[in-house]
Every structure is written in C-alpha cells, then in structure tokens.
Amino acid sequence: MSLMQATGAGEPNEVRVTPTATSPTADAISNTGKDEQMAPSLSRFQTAVTALCIAANSLTAGSMFCFPLIGPSLMADLSLSLKQTNTIWVGAVMGEYITAAFWGALADAFGPRPLSAAAAVLFGVGYSLMAHGDATAVKLNRAQQHQRKLAGMVATPYQTSSSLGFVPMTFAFVLVGAGVSASYFSAVTASTRLFPSHPGLAISLPLTLFSLSSLFLTSIGSHFFIDATTGDLSAATFLTFLAVLLTITNGVSTFFMLAPEVKPSQAEGVKKKRVTVQDRAVSMLADERLPLLSTNADSDLEENSGADQARSTANVGASSSSISLVPRSASLRDFLATPSVWILALLMFTAVGGAEMVMSSVGSMVVSLLGGGIVTPSHGATGSAVTSADENSPDLPAMNHEALRWRSMQVQLLATANTLSRLVSGLVTDFLSPSRPKAPPLSDTSDVSATRRILHFVGNIRVSRMTILLTSTTLLTAAFAFSALALSTLHELVGVSLLVGIGYGFTFTQVPSIVANAYGLRTFGRSWGLLTYSCAAGSLGFSLLYAVVSDVVGEDPARQDGTHVPLGVCLHGRSCFQLSFALAATGTAAATLLAVPLWRRWRTYL
C-alpha cells in the first residue's frame, strides 16, 4: 500500500516524485538535483545520529501492521463484529493514503523534521485514544459482570455496546495511519538527503526496515504484554506502549534528524537538464546498465547520457515507439484511455487487495481454525477471549497464549516473506531483464571449463518483468484457492502466509518497475500514484468482504450447537472465510488471464 505523487515543480522535464509509507520501489525521494547543492555537510557524529534516527523511524513506522495481533483483542473488549473490526483497519489504510500528497509537499518544502514532529503527535494521540477506549471498555465489562454476580445472575460476556468504541477507535486508527505515512516519509527524505551519492541504498534500507516493523513490534507484544490471568494479549497495555515508543522515537527525530537542506546552486549560465535523486532512483528501474547501488550516481548517469539521450528527451515511455498498449501522450486523458492501465489496475485490485485481506484478517483466521477451542470470552480480567473451558480453568491461560502465539507467528511470517521477496525481486529483475545485453558466445575450444559454461548460460537467461509479475499473481491465486478449498489446520496456514507474503512482495515490486518502463519517467509519479489507489480499493473491498462473510457464517443459527458464541467470532473453520477466498482466487485468476495479451506484447522489452 503506497502512493507516489509528482509535485510538478521545476523545469518541464524534471521528475519530482513524492512517496508514501509503503512504496515498493523508489518510495521516497528527495529533491536534490545536479544544479542544486547541499548545505554544509554534517559532522560524523551528526551523521551517525541522523542515521540512527532514520533507522528508528523506519523500524517502528509500520506499527499499523500489528493489527492482526491486536484486532481480536479489540473485538472482544469492545464487543465488535468482525466487519466493525476490519473497518478500523481500513481507517488506518485510508489515513495513510489520504495524507500522502500532503506529507510529500511538506517534505519537499521543509525537510524531514516537521514530519517527525507530526508523526509523534499523531501516534501519541492515536494510540493513546485506542488504549483509553480499550481500557474503558474492559472496566465497564468488569463492573457489569460484578453487578450481575451480586444479583445472583449468570455472568454473560459482551455487555458493552459496540457503538461505544467503534467510531472513536476508527478515528484513532486513521490518525495512526497518517502517522505511519509521516514517519516513514520523514525517514526516507532524510536518508536520500544524507546519502545523495548512494540513492539506491538510501531508499532501500529504510524500506527494508519498514517492512520488518510488524515482525519487530509483534515479537515485543507477544512476549512482554501478555495478561497473566487469561494468557492473551493485554491490548490496552500494548497500545499504550506503542503510543509511548513511537512518540519518543519521532520526537527525538524531530530534534536530531539533521538532514542537510537542499539549496539552489549559485552557478549561472549552465543550462543542464536537472537530474534529481528522483530521476536517479527511478532510472535504476528503467535501465539495467546502471549499477544497482552506484558509488557515484552522477558520473554513472553522465557516462550513459549519450546512449540514453533520445529516450530521456522524450521521457514518455520506453517505449512508446517500440511497444504497444501504452499511452499515446503524457496526458492524463490518454493514460486513462489506455487498456493496459486498467489491466494493471485490476491486477493490483485483486492480487494486492486479496493479500492485504490476509494481512488484516489472519488473526481471525487463526481463531476460526482453532474452532471449538475458543468459544466464549470473559471480561472478568482483561476482556481477552477465553476458551470453551470454564473461565477459572487452569488451562485457560495456556490455551489463550497458544492462540496469541499463532497470531503473532502469522504476522511475522508475512512480514519476513514480504521483505525478503522485495529484496530478491529487485536483484532478479535487474539480472534477468530482457534489456540487459547478453554476453557474447563462448569459444568452442576445450579450454572453457564446465563451470564457466554453466555461468555463461545462466548469465544469458532473460525473464521479463511481466513474466515475474504474472508468476507472483499466480502464486497468490494458488494461495487463495487453497485457503478456499483445503485449508484446515494452523500448520497449513503457515504455508498460506508464506505464499501470500512472497506473492505480495513480488507484485508490489514489479508493477512500479513496469510502469516506469512502459509509461515513462516523466509521468511516473502520477501513473504509479493513480494505480496505487486500486490497491487501496482492493484492500478496503476484500477486508470488508472477509468480515461480512465471517459474521454471517458465525451468526448462522443452523451452525450453532447451543454454546454461546461472542459477536464477531466465527468458529467454523474454513467455512468462515471460504467464500471470501474463493472470490479473491477467482478475481486474481481472471485478472492474470486478462494480462496474458499484455505479457505477449511486452515480454521482449520489459
């Protein structure tokens, strides 16, 4: 989930790309140009401190992706349906997207520190409101249970009205989503300004740390914020921890993230095309002749400028003269009238939307697959869900802790697979790209060793970006289909999480690279930015679809066995999500098939 916007400042051919929190490639880019100069360099100590701030912001910014760990506890504590719970998640996604353009403009104008200050406030307020709402609901439920016991009535869970916390909790998570975007924006802006001669490294390292945020934070939550009475996550305490941690982290960065300012060059009379860090980062997507991590990006570009002059002058698409199904011009009208744009948008809607459905609902999938092991919750202590055993059973904490362990494991698997697949995808794309020249044939003499022949053969293998993209969407289709037809155990869910993480990471890396090559660098920010809105729509649609299906199946009277089942909890295994995954598999498969003609046209160029 990410967004890039072109700010349109500067000369006509200048590319200004503004990223958001989850961009898979060239996510954040500063506006340092060849005719711009940096302010006086920082000392080694200042550079080290700034680098630590960048790392800290990146490693904590993705806190919203801990939601599968927190969501089931919030659902229990606030008596929410799964539809309401997933709407809270959608609030964070919308908060991230809606504020992206604003943070981009702010970063360009004032640098990274104001963004860190804003993130500190947004995280502090957002997570504090969530923690307060959860703690208030737990206290209310305790009081209600106590009153019922005094009156001699049977204690029943979930007396809190869901409307008490649903709307405020959604609003709070919108603030958190905006904070995610601001914090990561701050980190990558500072990174590209601090290390202008290493644009690839400056962009990729914050992105990698950001992708690991959920793994890092869920590990802390599942180990140190367990309620001793129930064995489940203490949601209010963990949310308070996140509020404190992220407020301090971004607050410190507000004062100590001393990225050099960008100032216009005083040299006059030199009229060169402005080659910004944005251009360099995106150019690495479009031209494999440039090294992946250049030690001197400026000189690399100058050495290649002669060969690339024709293409960089037009800058409208690789391609517009050599491949078909691309916009006839750089206008928005022609872009929206191009069939390939809608094919890619449909792929992103179904594949990314389905993958993010898993990312937001995997905690509920764990509960559903545990089935009869979790039946009724109790708010006598913390409001966490408890099992069908008596709430005073000595096995209760162990059973709840097991459910928490599996939820945490799935989040960590998704984060790890997503991160590694993005890193591998970039390397594989560069190495296998059809535009990379092949090595000349080897001599047929006996002096050539078998090892060299094998390396020569492997080095000349070419696989297009479209092939890699459709392979990744096929993996996602297989994961969705398996979940709909055969998933029945938590151990099988491990395989699903790995496949989804891999497919998601490869898809979200390949599409922007294809966009940069096919539609051109001049309009890359606009083109990719518009396409990412299909990801947001897919995430919203599939996450709510999952919730509605799960709620309907969980509340079906024909499936009840006389045991009270709390609101929002579906305990019927695969039936709770079968229809959702069937539709996701069907949609992704259809979108993949529709993209086959595009693959046939583009495979020799991209």
Task: Name some characteristics of this structure.
20 helices, two-stranded antiparallel ribbon, disordered N terminus, two-stranded antiparallel sheet, Growth Hormone, Chain: A, about 600 residues, mainly alpha, membrane, globular, 2 domains, transmembrane
CATH architecture of the largest domain: Up-down Bundle
Query: Helical content, roughly?
Result: 55-70%
- Count of individual helical segments: 20
- Main sheet: which strands, in order across? 1-2
Morphology call? globular
The biggest beta sheet reads: 2 strands, antiparallel
Question: What value does the average pLDDT take?
Answer: 75
Membrane topology: Multi-pass membrane protein
Main location: membrane
InterPro entries: MFS_trans_sf
Subcellular location: Membrane
